[in-house]
Amino acid sequence: MKRSYLLIGCFLLSALGPCFAQDLESRIQVLKSSYSASGSIVVLDDRTIVIEPKMPAPLCALPKIQDGKTSWLFYTFPLASITVPLAQVDETLISENRVFTDLNATKTYKPGDVGDTTMVVVAVVPGKQFHTLLYDRDKFTTLGPGPHSTSEYGQMPDDTEAFALTFSDPAAARTFEIALKDAVVLARGQKTHP
Question: What pLDDT is attached to residue 146?
Fold first, then answer.
C-alpha cells in the first residue's frame, strides 16, 4: 500500500513539473509585455532573462523633504543590458518610487506633486551580483542618428547589486513588479530538467 502511495506521489510531482514551467513562462510573458514601452526582455533560459532598457536612460529626480525643505536626489541608470538570473533576485527588496524626468520639476515642484515616471528598483540576494553592460550617457546623447559602435558610447561590462528600471505607466510598473516577484519564487522552486 505504501508503495502505491509513493508511486502516485511521484506521478503527481512529475505531472506538476510542466505546470510550474508553464506558470513561470506566463510570468515572463507578463514581464515582457509590461516592460515593452520601456525596453525589451530576452529569455536566455527558463530561469534567466536579459533586460535591455531603451537608451538613453532618463535622468530621474526624486524629491526629498526634510525639516519642511525640499532637496533633490538625481539618478540615471545607463544600462544597455542586465542579465537577471531570476532565482538570485531578492523579491523582498523590489521597490518603487515616483520620480520626475522633467527637470523643470525641481523649480516648479510643490509638496504632494507626483512624478511622471515610476522607478522600480531590483536588488540581488546577498553575495551575488547582476552582470550588466553600462554606457556613457553623455557620449550616447551626443551621437547623431544612425548605427554606432559600442565603443563610441563607451559601453563596458560591470557588475552591480541593484538596478532600476523606469516606466511611464504606473500600472505597467505594478504589473511588472508582481510578475517579477512571482517569477522569482517560481524559479527558486522549479525542478531542474536533465
Answer: 82
Query: For residue 176, is it within any domain?
Result: yes
Largest CA distance in the chain: 76
The closest alpha carbon to 81, from 115, 131, 118, belongs to: 131
What average pLDDT does the structure give for the chain?
A: 87
Residue 25 within a domain? yes
Q: Give the SS3 label for residue 100.
A: strand
Strand-pair partners of 39: 53
On whether residue 194 sits in a domain, the answer given is no
- Residue 105 to residue 113: CA distance in whole angstroms: 9
DSSP structural state of residue 98:
E
pLDDT at 22: 65
In which residue are the cell numbers 546623447 written?
Answer: 141
Domain tally for the chain? 1
Residues 105 and 107: their CA atoms lie apart, in Å, by 5
- What's the pLDDT at 90? 97
Does 8 reside within a domain? Answer: yes
* Coil vs helix vs strand at 20: helix
Task: Name the 3-class secondary structure at 31.
Answer: helix
117-168 per-position pLDDT tens digit: 999 999 999 999 999 999 999 898 888 888 888 888 899 999 999 999 999 9
CA-CA distances (angstroms) from residue 104 to 69, 100, 192?
18, 9, 51
* Residues 80 and 111 sit within 8 Å (Cβ to Cβ): no
Question: pLDDT value at position 5?
Answer: 43
- Structural domain for 110, as ranges: 2-189
